[in-house]
Design brief:
3-stranded antiparallel β-sheet, binds 6-phosphogluconic acid, alpha/beta, 7 helices, about 25% helix, 6-stranded parallel β-sheet, about 230 residues
Length: about 230
């Protein structure tokens, strides 16, 4: 399916463009709009933009249903929690019914939290999935060499952060690839080389983000100029 790459001069312009792309897609949809948020630090700015005007008024929040592509197995109020980051930047600032925010229940052990989340997401389809890119080529919590990469049956599985061994819960590759729209948001010069490898080298399990290939929708890569600085001229 088509892969579209757009480059913006700086992180602020990137955040505004990512928020606008989401708002346009949500506004054009009919019925429930199922979204999986990404974690880490990059999306904080775009989530904050979505919480501000015009997006706060433009997005049909009453039809939006929030899920998480992955979560660290820490309490929801822990500084490492993806839920906490999204709640601080966006969720508590927009008119979303709490019942439409589906947090990973990290109060349970990782395997049980993953099983419960698979029930929570009910099926593989998302209208929109935000993703980031780690310095080792991971996305969501699909790390190089992880058994989670090869999971083809489960919707959600447990994983482990390579260095810290911190347990995580992540949706699987088939769920991501079933999304109608996948939006990677990548910023910063430190991501330039891994981004070049993911976008320009053959897909490999050693670069999990390179395995993301939407089956039915499109993949949109929104980058700032620093992250895109190693890409071949197009
Ligand atoms: C997470 C994310 C992860 C993230 C990348 C990039 O839970 O950490 O889901 O996949 O998107 O690690 O993180 P940064 O945006 O912090 O560089």
């Amino acid at each position: 399916m088509p892969r579209i790459i757009k480059v913006f001069p700086d992180p602020e312009a990137l955040a505004a463009a990512a928020a606008g792309a989401f708002a346009d897609a949500a506004g054009a949809s009919t019925g429930a709009f199922r979204v999986a948020l990404s974690g880490g630090s990059t999306p904080r700015a775009l989530y904050a933009r979505l919480a501000q005007e015009p997006f706060r008024s433009v997005v049909p929040w009453s039809r939006v249903e929030i899920f998480f592509g992955d979560e660290r197995c820490v309490p929801a109020d822990h500084s490492d929690s993806n839920f906490r980051m999204a709640d601080e930047a966006l969720l508590r600032h927009v008119p979303l019914e709490p019942s439409r925010i589906h947090r990973v229940r990290t109060e349970f052990p990782p395997e049980e939290a993953a099983r419960r989340y698979a029930d929570e997401i009910r099926g593989p389809h998302f209208d929109w999935i935000f993703l980031g890119l780690g310095l080792d080529g991971h996305t969501a919590s699909l790390f190089p060499g992880s058994p989670a990469i090869g999971e083809k049956t489960k919707l959600v599985t447990s994983a482990e952060t390579p260095e810290t061994k911190l347990p995580r819960v992540t949706v699987t590759v088939p769920v991501i690839n079933a999304a109608a729209k996948i939006l990677f948001v990548v910023a910063g010069a430190e991501k330039s080389e891994i981004l070049r490898r993911v976008l320009e080298e053959p897909a490999t399990r050693e670069l999990p983000a390179s395995l993301i290939a939407s089956q039915e929708g499109e993949i949109l890569w929104l980058l700032d100029a620093a992250a895109a600085s190693a890409l071949s001229p197009r």
